[in-house]
């Protein structure tokens, strides 16, 4: 048997997913119990050269994906429109969706999750937060008894890459951003990265997961790294400190959720001090486990494809065919 996956988007992430499906057939067969094939890929610009095998249809028409017996959809386009409509259509047809799209999830995650629920299918999105780090899985499945008191995190690979390059190589902000774009870390619109929006969306997803709701967006402090200068970085070095774009999330005693995203100076003994380059890290303080820190690459083709493909195989429980897997088996619902 073969599982057919429609891939939406063939940029940094989509290409990483496509190549992983080609290079990891054996592992996918082991984990999913069936071989995995991508018969169709949606793109925007039909004039670009693509390194894709000849038997894959490349299309600019979303509806073409339904010409194939699609078992799952992987979305790597980004943004809200037209993707929201596309994913709704897939879920309404009971097709499970795996997405890396944090902006869409922060803005429309509840609606899409309700659609998935109504149609008894899955919407999963490990890749939307902290790249390759399985942070959503760990919070959902491994911290059910613990009370999460506070979360501190570096969630934007591009910003951390830029701050590291400015510090270590004395590169200018602009040069460092251009390098992050060349490496495929930055969003299509990099102002999402450098103004803190990307971290903001990821923090909202974490808030949904941990507290089952988001704070009022107007109450969230959101600053990016756009105002950080080489002088600021040198001043931090003088004090043996580093500047990091830090997200924080907690619930106050009155039940309100507090979140902030801003560049902060941290000292050598801070657990996230050593997190450099494109890496992300999440520090979770809980009442029982105490202080947990997870780190790993937060952006890039293969770290993101890793999270997407691990999400994908998580759809296969006990090697059952995808169509036989009931939605009701999902462990803890997110966005509810
Ligand atoms: N880059 C990264 O490291 C990470 C990215 N993400 C998320 O993954 C998603 C994709 O990111 P990334 O691969 O970097 O983005 P890219 O800009 O590299 O790729 C986007 C892809 O989507 C296609 N596309 C854009 N608009 C449309 C449209 N209207 N209809 C059809 N196809 C369209 C583009 O087509 P064409 O090729 O024709 O231009 C391109 O193939 C985003 O949600 C991003 O936030 C998540 C984690 C990490
Ligand atoms: N642009 C994002 C990509 C991953 O989510 C980042 O730099 O972290």
Explained architecture:
Residues 325-333 have low confidence and may be disordered. The protein contains eleven helices and twelve strands. The chain has two domains: 2-129 and 302-325, NAD(P)-binding Rossmann-like Domain (Rossmann fold, 3-Layer(aba) Sandwich), CATH 3.40.50; 135-298, Dihydrodipicolinate Reductase, domain 2. The two termini are 34 Å apart. Helices cover 36% and strands 22% of the residues. The protein is globular. With 336 residues, the chain is α/β, with parallel strands linked by helices. The strands form two sheets. It has a six-stranded parallel beta sheet, sandwiched between helices. Residues 131, 156-158, 185-187, 193, 198, 298-299 line the site of the ligand N[C@@H](CC=O)C(=O)O. Its EC number is 1.1.1.3. This is Homoserine dehydrogenase. It is an enzyme of class 1 (oxidoreductase).
């Amino acid at each position: 048997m073969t599982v057919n996956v429609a891939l939406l988007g063939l940029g940094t992430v989509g290409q990483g997913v496509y190549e992983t499906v080609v290079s990891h057939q054996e592992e996918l067969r082991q984990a999913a119990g069936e071989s995995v094939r991508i018969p169709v890929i949606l793109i925007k610009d039909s004039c670009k050269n693509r390194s894709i095998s000849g038997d894959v249809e490349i299309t600019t028409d979303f509806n073409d994906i339904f010409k194939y017996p699609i078992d799952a959809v992987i979305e790597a386009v980004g943004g809200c429109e037209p993707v929201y409509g596309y994913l709704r259509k897939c879920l309404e047809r009971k097709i499970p969706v795996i997405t890396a799209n944090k902006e869409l999830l922060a803005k429309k995650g509840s609606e899409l999750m309700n659609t998935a629920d109504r149609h008894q299918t899955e919407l999963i999105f490990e890749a939307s937060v902290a790249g390759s780090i399985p942070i959503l899985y760990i919070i959902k499945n491994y911290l059910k008894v613990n009370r999460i008191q506070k979360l501190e995190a570096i969630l934007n690979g591009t910003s951390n890459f830029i701050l590291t390059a400015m510090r270590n190589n004395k590169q200018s902000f602009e040069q460092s951003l251009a390098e992050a774009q060349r490496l495929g870390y930055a969003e299509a619109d990099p102002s999402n990265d450098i103004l803190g929006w990307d971290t903001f969306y990821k923090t909202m997803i974490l808030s949904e997961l941990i507290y089952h709701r988001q704070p009022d967006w107007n109450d969230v402090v959101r600053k990016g790294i756009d105002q950080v200068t080489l002088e600021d970085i040198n001043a931090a070095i003088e004090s043996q400190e580093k500047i990091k774009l830090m997200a924080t999330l907690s619930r106050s005693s009155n039940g309100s959720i507090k979140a902030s995203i801003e560049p902060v100076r941290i000292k050598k003994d801070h657990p996230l001090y050593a997190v450099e380059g494109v890496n992300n890290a999440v520090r979770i303080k809980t009442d029982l486990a105490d202080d947990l820190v997870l780190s790993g690459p937060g952006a890039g083709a293969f770290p993101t494809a890793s999270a997407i493909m691990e999400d994908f195989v998580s759809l296969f429980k006990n090697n059952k065919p995808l169509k036989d897997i009931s939605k009701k088996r999902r462990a803890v619902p997110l966005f509810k």
